[in-house]
Design brief:
- By secondary structure, the protein is mainly β.
- It contains 2 helices and 10 strands; from the N terminus they run βαβββαββββββ.
- The protein has one domain.
Length: 164
């Protein structure tokens, strides 16, 4: 179930995911979020993985403003966490989130692996009993000089403009 999907730029975004479609919606809103390594937390007793990020606000962008918002994202029913190419000792390192994906475990539905995929190669894999995620704006918004740069005109079989 997705909550408050049509929030305007002045409203706080609040999303809840219980299936792959909902998770894809969260992924779209979390794309390009900036996350410091020290703002990642696995809470095994609560079976929760949580993070705080600076989410790029797509609704504000539609209204001609470039803004980021402090946003919390957490996943419940987490059995284990695996980090790939991620050094937790680099606590001030900033990661750029590209996508949140889900791969079901065919032998044990609805369990699976949620992947947080970051620019440059780092990943976090969450083995979960089921999809149970929430994303909510929790703090201030601020203007930024530039937003994410994606070339949306590139086809699958062509190079981005400006590359040789």
């Amino acid at each position: 179930m997705v909550q408050n999907p049509s929030a305007g730029a002045e409203q706080n975004l609040g999303l809840h995911a219980v299936d792959e479609e909902d998770l894809a919606f969260i992924s779209a809103h979390a794309q390009d979020a900036l996350i410091r390594v020290k703002d990642l937390a696995y809470l095994p007793k609560q079976r929760r993985f949580a993070l705080i990020c600076a989410r790029f606000d797509r609704f504000a962008e539609r209204e001609g403003r470039r803004e980021r918002r402090q946003t919390g994202l957490h996943f419940d029913s987490v059995i284990s966490v695996r980090r790939l190419q991620l050094d937790l000792d680099q606590s001030e390192q900033v990661l750029a989130l590209l996508a949140v994906t889900f791969e079901p475990i065919k032998e044990a539905p609805p369990s699976g692996v949620i992947r947080l995929i970051f620019a440059g190669g780092p990943e976090i894999e969450l083995q979960v009993e089921c999809i149970e995620a929430q994303m909510r704006d929790i703090g201030p918004r601020w203007r930024v000089d530039a937003g994410p740069q994606h070339n949306l005109d590139v086809g699958l079989d062509e190079e981005p403009k400006g590359r040789s």
